[in-house]
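Sorry to interrupt, but I need a hand with the structure work. Can you supply me with one protein entry, sequence and fold together? No commentary is needed, just the two lines. Leave the record below and I will have a look.
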Amino acid sequence: MGLLQGKHAGGQSQLWIAWTEDVRERLSGHATPDARLVSVRALCRTQGKSPSEILRWAQAEGHAIYRLRRGTAMRFFILPKAGESEPAVDPAPVPSVASARDSDMVSRQGELGAEAARLLAMLKAEPQAVTELCKALGLSKHELEHVVKDEYEALLRAGLRPHVATKSEVPRAIRLPSRLNPQEYTYFSKLARNMGDDRNGGII
């Protein structure tokens, strides 16, 4: 994929790759999520480019490329280089986690991982269906479920409002542990964000 620098003399000679601690940290899947990270999948969707094109562009511009585990999958992300709040792919602008609706949201994103912060930035006061959010985020229902489950309490503090699914909505809903009994589960078909003064969120 062109992510690693190396040397090869050709023929049967060995391929030598420049392997450093920084490379291991960024690509092993275990790096600490940064709220500024933007997923390659999201950039592909908004820019109409292939993953290889986005990755080549990121390297040429000096942005850092990360590979993080999201649920059971490994996904690529781009961290803007120092001094930039977002990786601006031309000709169209790229949506950024930092472009929050208000300063309170920016401060709350500090305790969230990249995908959870993206989800929060996308939520509105009006409930949005899980299927719509999955499409907008470029995630499967299973991946979205893991994003919410992994940072459930932090998302609730930031104003997440999950809506309980009706019986007919269960197949399209995400399943989250009960806050009172983690051994029990509740299905939620829609997600919203509290836009008012109540900072504690809530479950409807």
Summary: The chain has eight helices and nine strands. The chain has two domains: 1-98, 100-204. Residues 100-204 form a domain with the Arc Repressor Mutant, subunit A fold (CATH 1.10.10).
